[in-house]
Amino acid sequence: MERSFISKNPSVLVFLAILSLFTLSVTILSEGFGIGVISTSFVKTLGKTLCLCLIAVAMDLVWGFTGILSLGHFAFFGLGGYMIGMWLMYERTRLIVVDSLAQVEIPPTSAEVVDAIGTQIFGVVGSSEFPLIWAFSHSLTLQLVLVVLVPGLLALIFGWLAFRSRVTGVYLSILTQAMTLALALYLFQNDSGLRGNNGLSGLQNLPGVTASQDVVSIWFLWASALALGLGYMLAAWIVSGKFGSVIRGVRDNEARVRFLGYSVEVYKLAVFTLTACIAAIAGALYYPQAGIINPEEMAPIASIYLAVWVAIGGRGRLFGAVIGAAFVSLLSTWFTGGQAPDIPLGFYTIKWVDWWQVLLGVTFVLVTLFAPKGIGGLFDLWTDRRHPDRHGANWGPDDGALREKEAME
């Protein structure tokens, strides 16, 4: 009888159990629902970290398992934030405008209300008219659809053009970085329709919700944990089946997989588009917790950081991507938040706010040279100790492949 997905992947249950325990612990210790040990600001930091772990899983799927080093996935992350941010900003402004106009003796027309909303939102860039891209901003349902549709469509078009031309390796990485840079530069313009470098702000205020930020932060923590759990399960399911075997083959020897009759471009495009949608969902949950989004969030350096997280955690291991993103993100918050003590050397004082990026770069180089399996590789030591009796020649090319004696049992 064929074994179920969970029975073949017990690590998924372990991950979900740890994630559930973490979420429950934070909830109990929070100010909104618990004893107040963890501040609301730190709860938001943890919620945002879970979103970064989700995009790291997407990055590991496209890079660690498929071999596509995308330096543009943070563009999809940012687009997801912009799509949900448009509704948040529109609806919040609409409620403010309606309350203010309700005190006028003559009731305003719907056109006057829309004009007042437009003036409030776009007055900062010298406009009062809604751009075409805001056509569905009044509808939460449609904007949620656009959270996935817009980044997914961009990834589909870009991927189709790149993969059908068989652009690979560093050239593909440069193209994805160029796409991200072009999108960021476009959004910096005031006539882009998204308020230029001002971006969208006040996203932490949910329209019509009277609950305090203490409570709202926990809601977003739950949503982020749920999204990460589902995203991890989806990624694990993909890589555990035939599809996962094919994309690993594409990563290791694309020419051989093509020779065997598989449409390599279709597999690449499917993974690239799917991971773009996952990244967009992560962004849609991240920026309401951050409270603001602007084009600087989509700068190419952000996607490079994403690759560093996955490399440090251990690419080709979903749990490694989560560990890398959580570890580097929380450590970055500690160093850049002024919590790390300065180191006086007499002739010079090391301030971690200035030196954190240098430390991160050095760590990336050291991991690449001396520990290519990243932090996740430490689990191999424990796994090897659990199975000291394995012997015989490998029946497959990969580490951990079935061995002769095991195949005969």
Question: Top keywords for this entry?
Answer:
409 residues, mainly alpha, two-stranded antiparallel sheet, 16 helices, 4 strands, 2% strand, disordered C terminus
Proportion of β residues?
Answer: under 5%
Number of strands: 4
Euclidean distance between termini CA atoms: 17 Å
The shape, in one word, is: globular
Q: What is the rounded Rg? A: 24 Å
The profile of the biggest β sheet is: 2 strands, antiparallel
Care to describe what's here?
It contains 16 helices and four strands. It is 67% helix and 2% strand. By secondary structure, it is mostly helical. Strand 3 and strand 4 form a beta hairpin. The strands form two sheets. Strands 1-2 form a two-stranded antiparallel sheet. The protein has a two-stranded antiparallel sheet with strand order 3-4. Helix 2 runs antiparallel to helix 8, helix 3 packs across helix 12 and helix 8 crosses helix 9. The longest helix is centred in the first third of the chain and has 29 residues.
Topology:
Elements: H1 5-8, H2 10-29, H3 40-65, H4 73-101, H5 110-122, H6 140-164, H7 169-187, E1 200-201, H8 213-240, H9 242-252, H10 254-259, H11 264-290, E2 292-293, H12 300-313, H13 318-336, E3 343-344, E4 349-350, H14 352-370, H15 378-386, H16 404-408
Antiparallel strand pairs: 1-2, 3-4
Helix pairs in contact: 2-8, 3-8, 3-11, 3-12, 3-13, 4-5, 4-6, 4-11, 6-11, 8-9, 8-11, 12-13, 13-14
